[in-house]
From TrEMBL:
<dbReference type="InterPro" id="IPR018966">
    <property type="entry name" value="VTC_domain"/>
</dbReference>
<protein>
    <recommendedName>
        <fullName>VTC domain-containing protein</fullName>
    </recommendedName>
</protein>
<dbReference type="GO" id="GO:0006799">
    <property type="term" value="P:polyphosphate biosynthetic process"/>
</dbReference>
<dbReference type="Pfam" id="PF09359">
    <property type="entry name" value="VTC"/>
</dbReference>
<feature type="domain" description="VTC">
    <location>
        <begin position="9"/>
        <end position="226"/>
    </location>
</feature>
<dbReference type="InterPro" id="IPR042267">
    <property type="entry name" value="VTC_sf"/>
</dbReference>
Amino acid sequence: MEYLGHKLRHEYKFYINTFLYHKLRKRLSHVLQKDPNMKDNEGYLISSIYFDDMYQSAMNDKLNGTRFRKKYRIRLYDRNDRIIKLECKSKYNHYISKEWAPLTREEYDSILNGDYEFLISRKEEVCRNLYAAHKTKVLRPVTVVEYQREAYVHEYGNVRITFDKNISASIGSLDIFDPDYELVGVNLQNMMVLEVKYDDYIPSHIWKLIQGGTMIQCAISKYVMCRDLNRKVRIL
């Protein structure tokens, strides 16, 4: 399925407790394959630097339940600069699409230092759109969202099921490579986030495995969680 030239995927999010996590993990491991990027059973570390503009559009659109919205972020894995991505994630109700472009460490440093000029010469549309948003709406990095992701995949339907654990927000520096980079954990009261993504369909036997427990489907945003935690830390 496509919308405005972008491929769409289904996305559903649930809060689950630790008991259900272990139950689902055992079930899924017999049917799906582990993400090849997982170095061990606990998964891999994702660090995302999120952007927002002078109007706090990304925050407000999410809180207001705006049907069509987008967020820009820089994403790294295991705090390593080998792979750095600039991403724009668009949301259309329960559908998502994603555009991305690779960044070098030097380009990453430039953006963190407020220099976006190199984006003009990049061929990727997501780069030029970020530059335009920075110039017109003062789009800039506002928080880092970090968590451990345990992921399972299935080729039919391009299914991807993930457990996002130990969600944390940055305090102070937004540069993941800064020696003074610090995090504070988000208190989910022994809960974690289960995400289910697929293209046009999900095999029925996989969906039945997921539905075999009590789950709370929510419009979950790890970004909003971390922005709220940032605000509380500043107040304290």
